[in-house]
């Protein structure tokens, strides 16, 4: 069974540093992570594209709700990390919960002692 460590990143959703493309960069568990807002839902995924390390928050979201990397236009499903443009890469995704006392990002423990 995997253990999830929850990290509070904000008191409220409005506190996040939203860019005009509805994405924000936060730090949780010592990692830079991208938060995206699409159709009233929040998604959380890696800071950089797994292909060539483009900063995903500098990209955009398409009409289908995929995040599009600014470097080579690779597309990823924000919910499950699947590469939807066919190159075969996988984007790391994280859990997010909006609770009464704030916004939390869940990062699965890795390794034997994580």
Q: How would you sum up this structure, described in words?
A:
The protein is mainly β. 0% of the residues lie in helices and 43% in strands. It has no helices and nine strands. Strands 1-9-8-4-3-2 form a six-stranded antiparallel β-sheet, with no helix packed on it. A three-stranded antiparallel β-sheet has the order 5-6-7, with no helix packed on it. The relative contact order is 0.25.
Features:
114 residues; mainly beta; Rieske Iron-sulfur Protein; 6-stranded antiparallel β-sheet; 3-stranded antiparallel β-sheet; globular
Strand content: 35-45%
Q: Bin the helical content.
A: under 10%
Class from helix and strand fractions: mainly beta
User: Mind summarizing the main beta sheet?
Assistant: 6 strands, antiparallel
Strand order of the largest sheet: 1-9-8-4-3-2
**Unreliable runs:** none
The gross shape turns out to be globular
Fourth-level CATH superfamily: Rieske [2Fe-2S] iron-sulphur domain
| CATH-derived topology | Rieske Iron-sulfur Protein
**In total, how many domains does the architecture comprise?**
1
